Amino acid sequence: MAQKGEGTVDEHVDARVVRTRNDVLSAAITVLVDEGWEALTHPRVAKVAGYSKATLYTHWPTRLDLVRDAFVHFGQMPHHVPTGDLRADLTGELTSFRSAMVENRLDRAMTVLVELAATVPELADARDRFVADGERVMRAVLAPHLDGDALEAATVLLCGAVVHTSMLHRRPITDGVIDAAVDIVLRGLPPAR
Amino acid sequence: MAQKGEGTVDEHVDARVVRTRNDVLSAAITVLVDEGWEALTHPRVAKVAGYSKATLYTHWPTRLDLVRDAFVHFGQMPHHVPTGDLRADLTGELTSFRSAMVENRLDRAMTVLVELAATVPELADARDRFVADGERVMRAVLAPHLDGDALEAATVLLCGAVVHTSMLHRRPITDGVIDAAVDIVLRGLPPAR
Asked: Sorting pLDDT into bands at 50, 70 and 90, what band is A4?
């Protein structure tokens, strides 16, 4: 983990630490997505990020530290900002999710993380947190209208539609299919509680 | 590809060829799922299957031939047999899909194939066929009730719910969530055409 300032360090140093973290973790994700887990070494990431190996080892003593923080960093991707209009919020969040798949190559990062976590048990927590962060907005949008198994079902139906299309069909879900999926789920909501 | 008999070969030989194919392709899937793509070599699969390397090279000259046929073989997994009762058919197919994830380790095979096909372009067709085979029964059950984007949406919502839960939550979807998902989609079907 990065050694953050503790109040005695001035803001200039803090800002520099934050920038270093962002640069290195973005580079780590790029290496992981483009070149795979085997390529994710301190020397390779240092080279791609343009920092010294010593800097990387100071902030992240092990590869696991580096990959864990990289996925936390990646998990902080943009989401739709809910407006209170359920249809607009579901459509907006599915569209944001699709953008992350296409522009941030979330599909690739997700595949790598799932595959990695299956063989490196220490990464299971990172995967679970990454998935929970990804679903958070969708659950928050649905929660006023559903609970229990119905809330879980609506979440995995909608998130699953984007995941399934991106990972298995290997093309982004279209606007027409997003609209049709939202129509089905809106009509299918249980009677108001 | 296996050299199948062409009418002049007696049934005994045919049956033996079929058995050899099944044994070898099942072993190939086991190796792929347990040990990964790197382990999928003719010597390793021959050893696991209990056949000679020469037999494997005769039937599958290259690793790509072997992995392609293995996924076709794996894709012929059991599906729900539709009864005409839409609720029972959706629930039955989702339950079959979940069983394949758990018992046949479909989640693992799918992750490996997606990851492989992203880096080995020659496997893209195998992946697409595998996915299409997996969705065929679901599409057939839904097709009398939906078309166009709505049919696509219902297919990726329902298949996606199982894929998302198995691959990202790393636990099988529960009966309660399957029932709630089917409830949402049944209520959400567009008005009869």
From this structure: very low
